[in-house]
Structures are given as structure tokens and as C-alpha cells.
Fold these 3 entries.
Entry 1:
Amino acid sequence: MDPQEIINDLQHLADRFDDSVSALATEQQIRDLQASFLGKKGEITILQKLLGKLPGESRKEVGQAFNQAKQRITTAAGDAIDGLVNREASEYLDRHTDLTLPGRAPRMGRMHPITLVMYDIVDVFVSMGFDVALGPEIETDLYNFGKLNFPDDHPARDMQDTLFIKEGKTLLRTHTSPVQIRTMLEKPPPIQIVAPGAVYRRDDDPTHSPMFFQVEGLLVDEGVTFAHLKGVLEAFLARIFGRDVRSRFRPSFFPFTEPSAEVDIECISCKGAGCNLCSGTGWLEILGSGMVDPHVLEGVGIDPERYTGFAFGLGVDRIAMLRYEGISSIRLLYENDPRFLEAFRR
Amino acid sequence: MLVSYRWICEIAGFSPKPEELGDRLTFSGLEVDELESVGNGFDNIVVGVIKSREPHPTAKKLQCVTVDSGSGVVSVVCGAPNCPGPDSRVVLARVGASVGEITIEPREIAGVPSEGMLCSEMELDIGPDQEGIMILDGETEAAAGTPIADALDLQDWIYSIGITPNRPDALSHRGIAREMALLYCKPFDPQVPEAAPEGGDPVGGLIKVDLVDPEGCPRYAAVVITGVKVGTSPFSLRYRLHNLGVRPISNLVDVTNLILLEYGQPLHAFDLDRVADARIVVRRASDGETMKTLDELERTFTGDDLLICDGERPVAVAGVMGGLDTGITQETKNLLIECAYFNPSMIRRTSKRLKLASESSYRFERGIDPNMAGDVLRSTAGLMCGLAGGTKAPGLVDCYPVPIERKRVALRPGRYESIMGYPVEAQEMRRILEGLGAVVTGTDDEISVLVPTNRPDIEREIDLVEEVARVVGLDKIPSLLPRIQSCIPDREEYEAAMRVRQIMVSLGLEESISHSFVPEEMLVGMGLGDRVIKIANPLNSKRAAMRTTLLAGLIENLKRATTRYVGMVRQFEVGRTFHDESGELPLEVLRVAAVMSGSRDSWIGEDHGSLDFYDAKGIAGAFVKELTGVDPAFEPVKDLDYMHPNRALRVFLDGEDVGVVGEVHPKILTDQKLGRGAVGFEMDAMKLWGMRRRSAASPLHEFPPMVRDVAFLVEESRDAAPIEDALRVACAPLATSVSLFDVYRGKGIEDGKKSLAFSVLYRSREKTLTDEEVDAIHRAAIDQVKTEFGVLTR
């Protein structure tokens, strides 16, 4: 075979590759085409088998031609692929995307508004150095009433309408105050606890739920005074309702504290001007408090001449209703409608 | 309690501004809930004097009158049956006046022009009378045209005061007037009322009182008034009662009510002629004894109830309610007025037992002043005789075998400061205590106080501390932050509950808080009705049983959501369940549960199907792993009434049963009329909390992994996990993970079989594995599984 003919053929083959490759649309097609020239059974590979039959002196020249042709095809294939990739990349960048469609959002869970508020309340006291105590929700009459200085047959018992398990013996606790008794019976002063939890009363209307949540607080030590009660509660109110919240202490009555006080804050809705939320008074009743009654201390074996203490109790539901908008009825809190629960953030 | 501003000012002898007085009362512990101004808004409503009266020409029931309105004579057509004749004074609403909802305008009534309206008490809301128009003859001499508020002196302010149980003294206008004088630093020296004329036989000759039970009734005093005439009280008295929420009835009854409101002393008036043998016996009831009370109900008593009886029968439930037979009527002429002091606890027990509360029982159970009977009876007789005529029989019956003395209580000013954190001068303390009516002696280190008997609540030093503090004002006390002794935190359950909530939220669930009481039949239907704690006095039968499972409340939530067309529910709850272990108190267990129903999250045009058993299992498993650091084990459980028998698993951790996960039994959902499926789980939160492991990271692998797949062809009924476990054992230790990645049925697989495809990741910590090594192990492992289960590979 004429070496020059082979060189020409190689030239043609390379030209043909160039012509064909420009029409191809995918990388695979280009690689297939490249293989049909350079692969095991490719035209150039087949042709190359003739190389050995050529006279020695022409082999070098023809060999170089093979290399050139292969080089040309490989380069052309590479360029074609690069061109293809560039074209795709630019097409990808030009493609229209409907950006108005909604995003795919992962589903988030939520805590109940009562939990959120309770956590914040407890957190304030814990950061002041209080510990958290819990007690049973089904209590003895003795701990719920007797040890808290509610005498039998006393009208003070009417202040809390009770759900009984066994009348006169066990009941659903009407307040978190029995946790005070349990804690004081368990350990000697100093005592510094808050007790969050569910409480129960025999009451059901748009402003009362038969189950609701309270946080109780108790500090018993030497030298604790009403001034400390005021200091701690004012600090608490500032943390929960903001630094500039105004509050006032009104004398009141609870059997287990004396002197007792109710605490009002200036209405957060009307800032004291008077509105529906505060029934026109400009103030919202937020918690009950007082100095632990000496009878209560004696009843748990603490010497009231040596130790004094204060206690307070606040309604978590009430604070949730003030803190969040749209809780128009306390019932909403216990119906657990998914649309309602979705609304609350910390 | 409703309190008339005018009345307390009359008693106290001075008149501060109504709002300011209200604030002072509130800040001394008598909380004013509401202050209402009454007796105003009567523009153009005046005294009118009738000039002439003629029948209406056509309408029989109407009268045509001309009335001097003070600014000319106007014609008015009046339909009242009591329309009076010339010279009578009436209440005229002139044109332009508003009466209730009506604005008075000139108009024609049955063809006759009318330029005003003659009003009744009811129409002006100054009394309950609506029988006819108000006739003012005898009530006022005011000239025609005088505004009615002036003519009848209507202006007043009514306080609504919440009286706490420790302040029985404040359940009266005198008590509040005393408080008012104290707060304004004025002497309290109310006027002594006029005494009644006395005559006839002394009271001792007219009645006999036999006080059999001085424990139940420490004091029984009474007077007799003869020759009274029942009539209507004057407008001013009726108006006062009306404003205080008491319906005027007759002069006799009105006086007893007025005295109750003034002194806080409940009285009972008997028609003396109906009291058998003119005899009063105060004794305990015998068990089963009965009597008809004023409300016409037959009452049955026990030996713990105190009765007032006459010579034959019970005539009143002491301190609670009178009897029907001996009450005063329109015909009553002679009266016996009882003024007693009853044992507070006994009155309360009786009132509770009979479910019968009255203004009287309310005051007796809180404790009235036992030592005011003399004043009260003098005042009552004076008022009664002034209004209804009659004569008081000389003297007074007074059975008071053991007089109740004033208590002596000491107050150390130093102790005051150690409780309140702020000193008050001993001098100021004395002033305050004297203002309460106490006799104060002692030294500046220890003040000795003889407490008045209208303050049964004051028994201890701390009670005096409170009195001083509330009068001084809590706003005087500074705010101080205490030194709080630090402590070793001990709050496991609180922390556990919070951690559980955080994990559940991170798994995309919303927290529910539902009532702890559920319908008992629901628990029974779920097979969880054993050891249920029941409420003795539930609000209703649907809230009578304490939950033994949190799932009950969650299913109720699901039901509520369904009736409200809410499609997707994914809720969890953390809370206590209650179980009767027959100790004094039940066992309370902190649990966590979840219920899920509806479609999975998807995006436009995508459908990921509905939440099913595997969603619940997945979340339950992820929760346990996240809380404890350990993957739980599962075992099928078929015998739960609340879970699908073939789609429920018991959850185990370290071999301990920690809960259940599964598809809620369709029967439960049908019982709840829920047309949808639901899955869920419930676990013991504290048990899991106690099994937490320390988190630990394994060293990271350095050498590349090699992956080999294998698919086994198995019977449809065969479960995947045992094969997976066997494969894991067989290809250990070089395999670091074995996972099921496909379950395939259909083309290429014969009916009744399925293909389970597993992916095995081989990896060494020492070197890069070779294909040969891995293939050998993999092949051996596959053969082992094939032999063990008798299955083929695909």
C-alpha cells in the first residue's frame, strides 16, 4: 500500500470526523463517534494495523500521520464536548423559572402557648436562684387545704370550688400551693422553689377552664420580708412584661399568707386609660402573694420566729392571654385546634 | 357587696370624693370592683302637678290630663290605672326626655295629642314598681318643674366591693364607714338612732325563750313590737334598698333588710300571733325532722342542724331561713324580732348540707359581732315603730349565758419590721388599732390590743401586723432584692418534660395540652378502664374519669379537628396519667404520646400519600434514639383494644417495656365517629429519661468503603427485620452497616413473593479492602442467610 495513500486517507478520515462531530448534540454521541474512529474497531485503528506492513523507511512518516490524525480527532472531540457543555451551561442560565411558586418548607413543630409562657416564667426565677419543684395533681385534702390554713367549715374554702376524688380526703389540687407544704416538709430552710403545674377547679365558662396552670413560688429563710417579696415580683414583672411595666400591690386575703397582697399591672392594652381588657379600670390582676402565715410554718415544723418567707402564685393561662394576641377565650387553650396551635412562637 | 356612698358618708359624718374613697378602700383591702353613679341622666324629667283629668273620648283605659310642667301646662294621655286627679304630684317626662329606650316626642294617642309621659319607678329604674305611675304626694313638696333627681334626692354612687372571708365586719355599711373614718384619720362616732315608744306588758310577760343549745347559739336576743300596720315604706328607703339590690316588700320586711345592710346583723321577724304558746325554743334538730322553709320547700334535718322552734314545731332554720308558717304577712300586727349570734361553723354546715345560702347564712358563717344585739334591736324597734306605728314592749329578752369577750393580742413593733421590712412608729400603730375600735395599752416595745368583737379574724400578732400594713399602705414598703441561698438543683421531671417537648417539636409535632379528665366509657372502650380514678363531683359525665392514657385526649383533639375540617393533625402531649394503686394517692406517671392523621407533607403536584404506621414507628424510634442515645427494639403486640391487632408494636429499651406504637384501632375511631385513620404512640417519659446514655462519637473511618447489594426472594408473609439481622451477623465484622433499600413486588417476581434488597457497606479501619476480600465475605454471608431462611437470591 502506498504510504502517501494512507496519509491521505488519514487526512480524509480526520476531515470526516470534523464534519460529523459538529452536527452531534450529546456528549455520548460524540464519544461514540470518536470510538468509531479511534476505538478497538475504529476506522483508524483498523488502518493502523496496516502500518506494520509498510516498508521501514515510510513507517516513521505514516506513524506521525497517525498520531496527528488521532490528535486532531481527540482534540476535535474534546472541543465539541466543551462547546456542548458551554452551550448547555448557557442554556441552563437562560432557562425561565417560575419564581412565584411557593418554596418547599420543612415542617416545624411547636410548643403549646402555655408551655412557652410557663417556661419563660420559670426561667426568670431559676436564673434568680430558685429551684423547680413539682407535686402530685391529685392531692390530699390536708395538703391542699388543711396545712395551708383553710380550716374545716370555713368560708375560705368557698374561694376555690373543688373537684373531689373522695370528698374530704383526696381531690384534684385547686392550686399549686400544696407543693409549698411538700417542699417544706421535705427539707429545712433555706427554701427557694417555684412550682409550675396543672390545677383544677369546678368551673367552666368562657373565662374559666376546669383545668388551668399556675406557677407557685416560695422563699423561706432568715430575714425574708415583704420588701423582698415586692423586689422579686417587680423584677419578675419587668422581665415578662417589659422594663417599664407599672405594678401595684393591693392588700388581700389568702388563708396561707398574711399579710396578703394581690398584684396588678397597668393594662398592657390601654396603658391605664381603661379598655375592655381591663374592664375600664386600667389595671390587670396578675398574681396573688403574701408572707407565709406563721401557722403554715408551724404546721411543717419551721420556727416562725426564726424564719420568715414569702409565697406567690400566678395564673399561666392569664399571662399567656396577655402575652399573645388572639386568645379570646380560655377554652381555645385546651381545644388544641391545629390552626390555633400553629400561631405561637417564643 | 353593694355599698351606698351616701349612706356610708351619712354614718361616717363626712363626704370625700366617691372615686377617691373607692381607691382608698381598694388599697386598704376592700377591693372596689365597680363604682356606679346612680340617680342621674334625668334631663327633662320633672315634678309635674296635675291640673285636670278627663276620660279619653274613645279609649276606655286612657285618661287625658293637663299637667303643670313648671314651664307651662301640657296635655298628656296617660294609660296608668292609678292616674291621680288635680293637685297630685307626678313624674313628668317632658318632650325631649329619654325614658329607657324611648325619647319623648309630641304625638297623638288614639286621636288625642300628648306632649309628655307620666312615669313609673320601673321606667326610671329607681324602683321595681310597674303597677302604675309614681305619685309623689307625701314624698316631696317640690314645685312643678323641679328636676326629679333634686326633688327625690336621687344622686348616689354604688360601690361593688369584693369582701374577703376574713372581713365579716365589712359586710355592713357601718363597718365600711368605720374603715372610712380610719383611713381618713377621723373619729368614728355615728349618730344614735331614735328609740321606739314603749308601752304595755314587759317583753318577758309576752314571750318565753328557751335556749337549749348555747353551743350552737351563744346569744339569743329578741324584742316584741305590738300594734304595727303593714304598709309601703317611704320612697327614700325603697330607693336605697333598690340600689343595693334588695327588693322592697313592706315596711316591716324593709326595716329588717335595712338593718342587715347597716349593721351586718341578720334579723328574723316572726308574726307573734302565729308563734305557738308565745314560746321560742332554740335546739338541735332530731335526725329526719322536717320543716317547710319560706321558699316553700320541705327540708329534712340532721342532729347537727340548729332549729328555732315555737311551742309546737320548728319555725326557722337558725341563721339560714325562716319557716313558711310564722313569717310576717300583710295581716301581721304583733312582731317578735330575733337578733341572735349563731355558731359560724354550724351555720355553714347546715347551709352546705341543705344547699341553701342566704344573706343571713352568709354573714353568720363568716362571724358577726355577738355584742351588737342591744344597739341593733334599739335601732330596729325605733325604725319599725317610726314607719309602721306600734309600740315596743318594755325590755328585751337576752339569753347570753357566756358572753363572748374581747381577745387580747400583743404586737411587737420590732416584729412588724422584721416581717414587712419597713418600720412604722408605735404611735401610728396605736392610732390605727384604735381606729379599728380596739382598746390599746402596753409599751412601745409591745403594744397590747383588746380586739373588738366585730373582728373575729384578729387572733394573733400577725393579724395585727396585717391590719397596720394595709392601713399604712403597701406602696410605702420599699422593694428589695433578697440574698437567695444557692441550692443543688433537683428538677428531674421538669427537665425531662422540657427535653421531651423539644425533641417532639424538632420531629415536626405540635404540642397539645388537653384536660386530664376524659369520658370513662372512652377509657373502657380502649381497654384502659382498669384502675381508673373517678371524680366524685364531675362537671359532667364526659369529664368524670382521670385519664389512664394521653391518647384519649389526643383522639378527642383529632375528633374536634375533623369536625372543623382540619385535614392534618400531628400532635403530641406530655403529661401525667393517673392509676389507682389503692394507696392514699394514685400513681401519677409522666408520659409522652402522639397522634397523627392526614397526608404527609408534599409540594405542588407531588403526592407523598397519607401518614401511616411507618410514620408513627419512625418518629417513635427517632424520639427514643434522640432522648436516650439508643435505638429501641420493637415487638408485635396483638392484644391491645386501642391498637390495630396487626399494626402495633411494643417498644423496648434495654429489655424494658417503655411503650406502644401503632395504628389506632379502627373500632376506637368508629366509636368516636371519626371517618379517618390515625396512628400514634405512647411512652413512659420518666422511664426513658432514666435510661439515657452518654453521647459518644466513634472515630471517623479513614479508608474508603465498598458497597455490595443483595436481593432475597421471600414469601410475602416473611418480615424483613430477621433477614436483615441475620445478614448483619453474617457479614460482620467488616460490614459497618446493613440497610434495606427496596421492597419489590410485581414484574419478574412470582405472585405471593417479594424481593427484599439490602445494601451492605464494608469498611476496615486498618486498610483499603480489596474486591476479592469483600466478595468472599459477601458471598459467604449470602449463602448463610439463604440456608438459614431457605430463600433464594434474585
Entry 2:
Amino acid sequence: MSSNAKWVVALKAEAKPIIKALGLNRIDKNVVFPVYKDKNARNWLVISGVGQKNVVAAVKYISEFSDSKGCSVWINIGIAGSSSDRYGELFLIDKITRASSDECFYPGSILKSNLQKSELLTVDEPLLDYSKVDLVDMEAADFVRVTSKISGRDLVLVMKIVSDGPNNSVNDLTATRVSHLILQNINLVIDHVNKLISLASLEEERFENPKGYTAVIERWHFTVSQQHELKQLMKRWVVAYPFTNIIKKLKIMKNSREVLTFLKHDLDNYKIDWK
Amino acid sequence: MVDTIYCEESVTDHPRTREIFSRFKSARKISVPRYGAIFNKRDQNFKLQKRNPALILARKYNGFVLPVPDGFGLSDHNNFYFSHMYNCIYDCRYCFLQGLYSSANYVLFVNYEDFSTQIEATIAAHKGKNVAFFSGYDCDSLALENITNFTSFILPLFKKNPTALLELRTKSIQLKPMIISDVLKNCVIAYSLIPDAISKHLDIKTPSIDRRIHAMKKLAAKGWKLGLRFDPLIHGEDWRNLYKGLIDRIFSEIPADSIHSISFGALRFPKAMFKKIHSMYPKELLFSGPLLSTGGLVSYKSDIENEMISFCRHVINETIAQPIIFNCSFDPSTKKEIIP
């Protein structure tokens, strides 16, 4: 299984430049949460709509739809209001406060990054006066809460682009302007996501079956408990004997118990050559 | 080195926090209510965080000085340990910390004065008795000294209390606190050592065995007492020659009279911890060795453990004339003595 990215964006206008840049195609007819993906299933995107409830539902939907495993990177990107005049600037978010509860969420910080970093306030209703906050949005808090449970917070990214502030009224925002803001930063965003996907790929081995495992369980009958034991033993065995064909070694075994005994015996007598 | 520092609100204005902030001017500083909000929560990935650990500055409120588990320490002493830090800059594949914590971020408790108060209170409470303090079980005692200055802070306390013994456990070659301090006869710098060929595979991001021996030599020349900690003992092809080579090498460089004590530790993991670590590093050769799961522990068979300890003791006794204190060792994850 390969690492992949799950993009969750609130607005179609935010999604458009990402869909184009990544070559994504619509893959379902769901009118509530449209889902897109590329041909290699490396990038998935869902349009959630505005607000935390929508984002939670969209994450759940795409998670089930795409059979998310632990090494998916989750990205929430979108526009945000700012008290300072930083129109068009991209920020990597490292602390999110949910306005309604003061609860804080912390996306991971494993990626070395030169991007500007900021805290973010997530509100339930559009904030008219945000002069006292760095950045404000309507999705990120619950996005981090739910995606951290799926992939762990280290693989969760929140990126925001300032769309409105003291000199740029929210009333002047149009779909075209929103798309343009995303497009202006798309290369930086994709570069960042790709770096995190590379890190996530370090986790792939955790989910891989040991080489030859499927062939072994097809050849002999293993109970569920034995399958678990077999997997653990084979993981160790294939590391000890990387150039040996396990099927050839096991072919004279009569049943699953003999297979397990053979593997245990081999490992019990294995002396690691550290030189 | 550190590009993100999380800081508990309660220590934001602590002088030590300010000093660390001033040394990491470009690091991103993020305020947190309590370090538990970001350390060791379940939704974290130790292995990925090891790629770029953050520093967490926090205040410790209790548990500054704790009694060591039964069977550990010096037999004629009252033994205690303390941890001013959780986690380590090194990434040793056998380390129990990678199974103990979900987070690889470093937690530094900046209220050192509370540690010293409790250490002094413990010494006072054991007046007239031998008392020993061990540092370096939840972290390496010296590896982050250039940031923490904890050893430099704590050594004067032991200078003032010469009847209390301090052991600093390390793989670091950071010698500054001992170079600038007078030699304390009641302080042991204990080095964790495994044969070089094995260290190259398993001691990730650590100074090489050569550099550790070089550091030990410098300390010995200044008069510091050293501990040798063959912990854990790692089995493999030709292990006798590897350990004999290591022991010969050490005693060819380090005068035997600099050695305070020697101990051996077995490779042991609680079953759940082994499962977690093996799952993180399924391709690690160490875990393909002759490990046995019995009684909730994963370890080498006892005949392997005993043979390795006997062999190493024998080589040491053959190598040096004078008697050496052999400490027992314990498994910090299970709090159980390893060698009965």
C-alpha cells in the first residue's frame, strides 16, 4: 500500500486549482461531498462545504470511500481572515483554538519548513471583527481532531491563505479571487504535501505483509490466531534470511503447525552477523 | 537543531525558558497549557517525530526523586533516581523509550531548583546512611547538556554533599560540565557500551564507541570515576570476540583504577512494548535474533543471557587485577531486576 494524500477543502473555488494542478478527476456522483482522485490514487480530494460539522462528515466519507490507512497525509487548505494586512500570504498552522470551547489542537511539526507559521482560531459563525486574532477559519479545529485519530497528528497539515483583512473586505471575495489565491500558492503547497507524503512512506512497512505470507496462508490452513503468529514470525524470518525463498524452505511441511515450528526453530538458532 | 519549541504557560517567563528561547531565536514557539497536551498522546508517531523532534519546556510538580526499583543500584546504598528530561536525542534501536512513549519530542522540566531541593531533602532524610542518585533512565544524562546545563547545575549540590553518590548515565561525549568542575569523588560518569560492530547497526545518532572511549579517557585523566554499562548485551555471530575486543579496547585506554563499577543489562522488553517497537521497525535485524516471549517479557533465552554475562565478567577479571564492583541491572520498563 502506498502513502497518499487526502485533501479536504471547504469550497469548490478552493478546490479548482488543486484539482487542475494534480490532474484529479471526479469519481463519484455524491452531490453532498464531491470526491476527486488522480489515476495513481496518490491524491484524493473532497469538497466538504463550510463549517466543522461538514468537514467531519466529509473526512468520514472520504476515509471510508478511499479505504484510508494509517499512512495517509491529511491536508486542510483554504482561505482565512486575518487581523493583519497579509493578503495572499500562505501560512502553515501549528496551533488551532476552537472558539466555542477554547480547546486547542496541534498539527504535527515533523516537517522542516520555511513556510510562515501561525496560530488559527476556528469559529462556528463568520466573525465580523477579527482584529484580535492572527488567522480565523471555520473548519480546521474539527478537521485536526478527526484526522489525528485516523493518521496521527504528525501526518495532518493545515495551510491557510489570507483572503480578507483590514484592507480586504470579506464582502469583496469572489470565487475567482479565492481560486486565484490558492493558485498563487499552489506550488508551495504541493511541494510541502509531497515532502510529508515522503515521510509518511516510512510508515508503509508497518502495514506490509511479509514477503511470501499470502502464498503460505493459501497453501496451508491457519487459524486466525495462527495467521497472526505466522505474520509476526515471518516478518522476523524474512529479515534474517532475505535471500532465501521461504516457500521452497517450507514445501515439505505437512501442516500449519509444522510451518510455525520450523520458523520458530530457525529464529531460535539464528545468530545475527553484525559485521 | 530544534525548530519548534512548545512551552507550558506556567514556565513562559522562567529564566531558563528565556535563556533557551534566546538560543533558538528562529525556532517557532508555541504556548501550551500543559505538556501533556502534546506529549505522549496516542495520536502521535514516535518514529516520524524522531525525524525532527520538538522541544517541550515544562514544569514538574511532583515525583522529583523516586526510589529505584528493588534490586537495582548499589547494595549498600539507599538508591534513588530522578529525570529532569524525557526522551533522548539518540535513536538506539533497543531503547525502551521508543516503546514507552508515543512521542519522540523532548520534554525538559525547567524547575531544576525543585529537583535540587528534593535531592537535598532526601540526603538529609538519610543522614549517616549511604545514598545514591541515578540520572539518565528517561533520557541521556549529558546528551542535551549544551541546551539544558542541568549537569552543571546539579554537580555543585553533590560537591556540597560528598557522602551522596551521583551516577550520570550517558553515551554522549559532552564533557564540559566535568571539565569545568572540580573532580567529585562521589560522581560516576557511566557509559553505555556495546561492541563497535553492533553499535554501528543499533546506536543511531550516537557518538561512536571510539569517541565514547576517547571521552572516557579524558575524564579518567582528569580524575573522574567511570562506570561501564554493558547494557544491553546483544547476541550475535562471534559475540565472544566482539565483547572481548570491546573490553580489551576499553582497558587498553582506560586505567582500571578509574573504574568505579561495571554492570550488565539484558535485552528485555515487555511483550506489548516489543510488539510496538517491532511494528515500528519490522525490518530491524535485532528483532530477528533468538528472542523468546515468556511471562509477558520478550528477551533472549536465559542461558544466552547468563552465558554472555559470565563470559564478560570472566574476561574483565582476567584483564584487570583489582576487584571491581559488579552492579546488578534492572529493566526500567518493567521495574524488575534483570540479573538475580
Entry 3:
Amino acid sequence: MALVETLYCKICTFPVDFCDYNKKATKCKAWLEENHPAKYQELYSNKENEDVDEKTKKVEESLKKMELRQEKKDKKELEDQQNSKIIIKTIERTKRKRSIEIQGLEVFPLNLKKLSKKFSNKFATGCSIVDNKLVLQGDLADDIEIFINQLLKEEAGLDDIKVEKVVAKRKKTEEELAAEAAAAIANGTSTAKYVKGDENKKA
Amino acid sequence: MFKKLTKQDIKGESQLKSSFSRNLKQELIAKYPSITADELEEVIPKKKPLSLVKCEDRLSLYTCDNQILFAQFYTDEYIPHLKFVHKFSRGCFKSLQVDKGAIKFILGGSDIMCPGITSKGGILPSDDVKVNDLVFVYAEGKESALCVGKLKMSGEDIKNQNKGIAVEVIHYLGDGLWNMKI
């Protein structure tokens, strides 16, 4: 006797014959049709012609409702993600040493623990998780902004997420900030984001 | 039982000795006589060491190649992960079948009631299955198992009383254990 090979759905992770009991059934069907057309035929083609009795009809209806609810939830989640902001905060530690705190990553389907490893590998610094925030050692705000944008595009398929850079308030840095902001205005568009963040902070 | 299991419950991971995997295989073969050693070898290769993932509340998970194979409370019976169950044909295990109407509720985490088994689409467990045995539940018109549970009533009782909880569901498709990735 050989092992039984079960085909699992990539969308809902269930074995394919249970896809229609999942909350994402429509997406599952599309996936199956595209990737395993033979299996799709086997599962769904003869179903439409069958006479359905009262009971199965009821079940199907309730399943449809469930799916709709899930869809709404997904939509809201996506909206949340689109609206949420990632804040990169620069914190001055000692005179010339800075650390970076990244806030607002937990809304996205990313694994913070893995991400922290990735950061520490990529930037060759220490990176740790403190209450859902990533803390990196070193003044890396600019690099991280680019990296996060790229990461979100690749891993989550999300574009145009707002990334805001903030410098933690301190007396010493205030002057620098003003100078930097002035420089940014002089430079024009390239650092426009920075200026915006700065204004928010003051207001 | 695994409904709320998440990654945060993991306490630590350690590799197991190869002797453990040998013993485990022997135990499995003794328990499920229809499984041959060759088949088992394919699922749990000698080359790849098993590892033990400890979780909250004295729950241990046995994994191989980042796939969960078994779960265990304290030192109780090994509860096979459904992906493990799916690898073997239906005849290997003590099984029963439920009708279509029950699937939805099982996948929501509810226990199995008698009528779901006694109705037209269901199949009662065979006579040699005793109360408190681990049973694998299949569904009408579906190939794969959808949950693992503990039998709470004998086959005879299910038929005669036809009321109340027949199977206590432990692990089902889409619960915390199913969605856990290590």
C-alpha cells in the first residue's frame, strides 16, 4: 500500500474537497481551476446538475453568508493596512549614538521575529522586539524606509503605505532639526515626506 | 482543544534522539497494524531527526522537517496531526463518518452529536472501537479526514440512544494546531 497523496489548497490550506466549507471558497475555486483543472472538474462540474434537497440547500446558503462576512472582514483588514502608518522614530541615546524604533508593523502580515533577524542581518546591527515595536541600534532611518517599502511590496503585495520618519524630541536635536528641515525645503521634493512629518510633530 | 493555540504558546524546541523516533515507529505500528514500516519510513525518515516543541499547558508537539506529526498532552496518547492522517488510506485507522450537515459545525469546533453519525450519510464506527478510543472522522462525499476525536459512546449506544455527544473533537481542520507553522 502506498501513501495517499492529498492535494491541499494554497488559499485556505484545507484538503481541496473541503474548500467549499471554508470562508474563502470562491477564491479557492478560482485557484483550483487555474492550477489543477482536472481536480476542479472532478469536484465541481457534476454538482450543478444534481438535484439538491432542502437540507443541503440550507447548508449552502449559510455557507454563502459566512463567506460574505469573511469577505467584508478581509476588506476591512486591507483598508486598515492601507490607512495605517509606519512610524520610524530616531531616538538619541548618547551624544552621537542613535537607535531606531519602528512602530505600526503589526498590522501587516509579517513575522516580526523573522523581520528582526532580517534587519540585523541586512544592516549588521542588533535588532530586538519591544512590545510589537522593532528597535534597531544605529542611525539607519533612511535605509530602513527604503527597505520597508520594498519589503511590503514584495511580501504583502501592498504599495503606497505611508512611512513616516520622526525624530524624538530633545533640546539638542531641535536646532539640528530646524536646519535639516530648512535644507529639505531648499532641496525640494525629494525629502518632502520629512517635512510633512516634522510639521505634524510640531502641531 | 487546539482552538486557541498560537505561536506565542511555544516555549522551546529541542531535537530528539534517533532512538526515540525508532520507539515511536514501533509504537505506531503496534497501534495501527495496517500501517507498514516502509510507509512510516517515508513519513518519518531515519535521516531527518524528530524534534520536540514544548508548548503551554504541558502540550508537546512532535515535528519532523518543520511538519507537525503528533501532539501530546502530558504523557497521554499521541494525537496525530491531520496532515499525518491524510497520508494514509482510510482503512488504517479506526474511523467513522458523518453526514454533510455536520461538516460545517465540526469545522467550527463543535463536538459530534449522535444524529450526525446515525443519519443517512453517516457510518457508525466498527464494533471493536471502544469508548475513549481515538477515532478519525471522515465526511459524506469527501475523501480526507476532517477531524480527530475521542469516542464518548459505544457504537451500540450511538445507535440506540441517538442523542447527545458521540465524539469529543480534539483536532479539526482549520484549528490552531492545523494553522500552526513551525
